[in-house]
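Box 3.1. Reading complex inputs
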Amino acid sequence: ETGVTQTPRHLVMGMTNKKSLKCEQHLGHNAMYWYKQSAKKPLELMFVYNFKEQTENNSVPSRFSPECPNSSHLFLHLHTLQPEDSALYLCASSQSQGFTSDEQYFGPGTRLTVT
Amino acid sequence: KNQVEQSPQSLIILEGKNCTLQCNYTVSPFSNLRWYKQDTGRGPVSLTIMTFSENTKSNGRYTATLDADTKQSSLHITASQLSDSASYICVVSARAAGNKLTFGGGTRVLVKP
């Protein structure tokens, strides 16, 4: 395991539901990331938090709402999703966002299916 | 626009055989290149990282090469094992604020007995 955990591992939700994804890192890192991985497409960066501050929102629809209460925890709140939002959602962390040599460690992902 | 292209998209090899995966990139200014292995339903795990001055880096049976002039990298898997079945993702980092990564689409490798 990489030290980054995600829950739940699988989630099925209807388009009118509200759910949250949780990510926790035990590596003492200061930067955390949300990625979306759709079938046969490269990973897409969604949000970045550095020292609890959001530093990047990659034009993500407002039905995805991130929250970072501290450097160890990251949430992704979901509401009124669309079927095309079905994907693997990956959380990652790194020592900080500013250094390109910092490796990002990924969690196992949450497989989301929107019905 | 920064891009990373990988080939082939998928390949099947017999256990014990070797294979080579390709990665071409247009990321600029270049900082480093990583190869990740992603098992089905899991997150990516780093195999190697190479900076501009490094031509080759090994991690067990995995050997990565980098040609910064032609902006190409390869990942060679030696004596493949069933556990090598996974997607292999090439990731290039730009030397700019924010540690922004550009991901390739991956090569799906299936090792058959």
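In summary: Chain B touches chain A at residues 4, 31-32, 34, 41-46, 49, 51, 89, 93-101, 103-106 (CB under 8 Å).
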